[in-house]
Specification:
The protein is α/β, with parallel strands linked by helices. The protein has 13 helices and 10 strands. Helices cover 45% and strands 14% of the residues.
């Protein structure tokens, strides 16, 4: 059974900012290696503790044989992360997206493992109609290849509803090291946390992927009474598309949340910041148009900062929705303290070098 290195597991359990990496493309929609490396250098310099590659915000179409970018991107990541780790005090936790039916998912997991990625973020979107037994057999098969990060992806962007019964049994899969909880749904989020609590495992790190509820996820104590005893679990970090931009502020925000939890006191200021972050996310992720522009919205922020040359996606039809650019303008004006434009401007040239 694959194992995560103890130090990496400790870092994951402590709570990290893990941006879900977008894909840097040039005007011909080819991989822009220079800007892709610059993006990852930005994340490391901003204080991110890990990077996720080949996930939803990287665009699932990288796996299309006509595109053929899954392996090249993971290989580029390995090279750049090795360079970054040589200059860091702690290594980046490297997470690779893994999807498809079992044969494809196991092959992607093996490639990620062989290229030095530490865990696979396992999407179950390809098994939309499968029952719990089938899903768990799939998870166990992939978990024999690479340590697993479970993934509750919201149905609005291709996920499926996964009941408490599934998560309770998923928590018993030995190779599970973390779960990204991203159903954008309070009841379903609670299902995952309660399932892990009932499993008795304290070695599974819980991460928010709920970009609509980031701060509150990070400061909420989830308390249960199990077999006559009190059990509390916390969501300790975030593996988020939203944290792919304004990442320096995300690191500061997670530190604030950790301090508030340690002090047992969540301030009005932090609660106000929770609403601000959600409002900004609504603009970036194009909530008004059913998330149609969620990837292009992140690209637009990175373009404004000079990290990306344009907002191109692999699909030419995937772009900003009408009114989305104006919404991004609005949140820039309304919440100027959230952006890290000055930090990026001060270092962008060295990252692009």
């Amino acid at each position: 059974m694959p194992r995560l290195h103890p130090r990496l597991h400790q870092l994951l359990l402590g709570g990290l900012v893990i941006p879900a990496s977008p894909l840097a493309l040039d005007a011909r929609r080819r991989l822009d290696e220079r800007r892709q490396r610059a993006l990852w250098r930005y994340y490391s310099a901003a204080g991110a503790g890990g990077i996720a590659v080949g996930v939803h915000t990287t665009q699932f179409a990288i796996r299309d044989p006509k595109v053929g970018l899954f392996r090249p991107l993971l290989e580029l990541g390995r090279d750049e992360f090795d360079r970054l780790d040589a200059r860091r005090g702690e290594p980046l936790v490297r997470i690779a997206g893994v999807c498809g039916r079992t044969e494809q998912a196991a092959a992607e997991a093996a490639l990620a493992r062989d290229l030095g990625y530490h865990a696979g973020l396992l999407s179950l979107a390809a098994l939309r109609e499968a029952d719990d037994d089938t899903l768990l057999a799939h998870c166990r098969a992939v978990g024999e290849v690479i340590p697993l990060v479970g993934f509750y992806l919201q149905p609005a962007v291709g996920g499926r509803v996964l009941p408490f019964s599934f998560w309770r049994r998923f928590a018993e899969v030995e190779s599970v090291v973390a779960i990204k909880i991203a159903p954008f749904h309070r009841y379903q989020t609670l299902d995952v946390v309660r399932a892990v609590a009932e499993s008795g495992r304290d070695d599974i790190a819980l991460y928010t992927g709920n970009d609509d509820n980031i701060v509150l996820d990070l400061v909420t104590p989830y308390r249960f009474r199990l077999d006559g005893r009190a059990v509390e679990r916390r969501i300790v970090g975030g593996l988020l598309g939203h944290w792919a931009v304004w990442t320096r502020g995300a690191v500061e925000l997670l530190e604030q949340c950790h301090r508030a939890v340690a002090a047992g006191c969540v301030s009005d200021e932090l609660l106000g910041q929770a609403a601000a972050v959600t409002d900004a996310n609504a603009a970036f992720f194009d909530v008004a148009n059913g998330f149609a522009g969620c990837i292009a919205g992140l690209h637009e922020v990175l373009r404004r900062q000079g990290l990306f040359e344009g907002i191109w996606c692999l699909d030419p039809n995937e772009t900003l929705s009408p009114g989305q650019r104006e919404e991004i303008d609005r949140v820039y004006r309304t919440y100027p303290a959230l952006n890290d434009d000055a930090f990026v401007a001060a270092h962008r040239d060295e990252w692009l070098d």
